[in-house]
Amino acid sequence: MDSILVRGGTPLKGTLRVSGAKNAALPILCSSLLADGEHTFRNVPDLRDIQTTAQLLRHMGLEVDVAPPVVTVRGKPVIEPDAPYELVKQMRASVLVLGPLVARYGRARVSLPGGCAIGARPIDQHLKGLEAMGAEIELDHGYVNVKVPGGRLRGGDIHLDIPTVTGTENLMCAAALAKGRTRITNAAREPEVEELATVLNKMGASIEGAGTDVIVIDGKDVLQPVDHAIIADRIEAGTYMVAAAVTGGDVLLEGITFDHIEALCAKLRSARVIVEREAHGVRVVGKPPFRPVDVTTEPHPGFPTDMQAQFMLLCALAQGSSVLTETIFENRFMHVPELVRMGARIDIRGRSAFVHGPAKLTGARVMATDLRASASLVLAGLVAEGETEVLRVYHIDRGYERIEAKLKALGADIERVPGSSRV
Ligand code: EPU
Question: At what angle do helices 165-176 and 191-202 cross, to 10 degrees?
Fold first, then answer.
C-alpha cells in the first residue's frame, strides 16, 4: 500500500482548482439507473470511490466509461437489480443504488453496508421511506430484499427521524418515478442533495424544495438521460483552506461556491484566519497565532462532520483550549491518538475533544482508518518539524484527487511512496 511522506515547514502559496464533489458525484452516477440512453457527467473527480461506483453499475449491465473529469454512462435495463457484498463492503455509498433500482424495477437486492470505521451507520430511514411508498422489505443473509407489489412505488409522506444525506438522496430518486406525490420532511439540506435534485429535474423529474428540509416530488412515468457538470467539492476545498491556514500560507481556491462553506469560513475567521470571498473563489491567508474556537458538528448548514478532523489540527495549534463536539457519528476521533503522537494535547470525553494548544508538532509515522482523519494527518505533517509518513493512503485516495500533487503545486515538500516498501 502507498504511503505519503511530508516534510513540514513550508507555507502553502498559490492557486488551486477544486475538484468535483465526491458526495455529489456518487448519487448522481447511481441516478443514471433511472433512465436509459447516454448520460454525460462532467467535472467528476478522479477517485477510487468513482471507480467502485462504475464497477457497481457495470455489474448490473450498464456501460460506463470513466475518463475523469468526464464519465459517460449508457443506461439500459439492468440484468439483475442487485448490489453484491463484494462491492458494498468497499464503499458503503453503494447503497445509493437502492432508491433508483426500486423505483425503476420494483425490486432490488442490496447488501447491507454494515458499520464502518466512523460509526454503526444503519439505513433504517432509507427503508422506512421506501415502505411508506409501498415497498415490502425483508432482510436475509446480510442482504436487504425490496419488492413492490404491483411493480411501482406510490407517493407517500415520509418524515425522517434524522436528516440523513444518502437516505434523502435514495428517497428522492425513488419518488422521482413513483406514482403520485411524495413529501419528505426533515430532509437533509446538504448542497449535494440539492445538486442531485438539479440533475433529476434535468432528467425530467419534478422536485421542489431540495436544499430545504421539506422536499416535494411529483413522480413521472419516465426520465431522460442528462449532460451535467458537477459542483465543486466543499470538503476538499475546506481541507485545503485549513492546510493554507495552518502553514501560514496564502492560497486562492478556485471554483468553490462560498455559500457551501459558510459555517467553516465563520469558524476559520473566529480562529483569526483571513478568509476573503473573491470573484472566482475564496482566498485564505493564515497568520498564526490562531485563537481557540469551539465547534459542534451539525447537519448542513451547520459545521460539517467531514471537516472536524482537519479543523482539530488548527485548534491544536491555537493559543488556548478549544472544544470540538461530534454529534453526527459516534466514532469519529480516530485522528486524535495519532495527532497526540505528533505532540498535540487532546483529551476525549464522550463526544467532545478538548484540545489544548499551542502544540509544537513533530513528524512521526501515523495511520488512520478513515478518509478525513487521514487527510488531517497529512495536514499535520505540513506543519510538523521533520518527516511525517502517513500510512494506508488508500483511504485518502477514496476521496481526495491526487492530494500530494495538489499540495506539491502549492509548494509543499511531499511525495507518494509507492508500494509497501516503507510500511
Ligand atoms: N443514520 C441512521 N439511520 C439511517 C441513516 C443515517 O441512524 O437510516 C445516522 C447515521 O448513523 C449517522 C447520521 O444518521 O449517525 C447521519 O448519517 P447520514 O446518513 O447523513 O450519512 P451518510 O449519508 O451515510 C453522507 C456522506 C458522509 C458524511 C455524512 C454526513 C456520502 C456518500 N457520504 O453519509 O461523507 O459524513 O453524509 O454529512 O454522501 C465522507 O465523505 O468522508 C463521508 C463520510
Answer: 10
Which residue's CA is minimally distant from atom 4 of ligand 1? Answer: 123
* 420 torsion bin: left (phi>0), alpha (psi -120 to 50), beta (else): alpha
Q: Are 198 and 158 in contact (CB under 8 A)?
A: no
- The closest alpha carbon to 259, from 325, 352, 194, 308, belongs to 194
Task: Tell me if 119 CB under 6 Å of ligand 1.
Answer: yes
How many residues are listed for the chain in this entry?
A: 423
The model's pLDDT over 74-123, given as tens digits with 9 standing for 90+, comes to: 999 998 999 999 999 999 999 999 999 999 999 999 998 866 777 778 99
User: Taking a C-beta distance cutoff of 8 angstroms, is the pair 48, 286 a contact?
Assistant: no
Global confidence as pTM = 0.97
Amino acid at 152: R
Say whether 265 is catalytic.
no
- Cis ω on the peptide bond leading into residue 301 (within 30° of 0)? yes
**What number does the ligand 1 atom closest to the CA of 128 have?**
8
Q: Given pLDDT bands bounded at 50, 70 and 90, which one contains residue 9?
A: very high
**Residue bearing cell 488531517:** 376
Separation of CA 355 and ligand 1 centre (Å): 25
On whether the CB atoms of residues 82 and 60 are closer than 8 A, the answer is yes
Which residue is associated with the grid cell 491526487?
A: 402
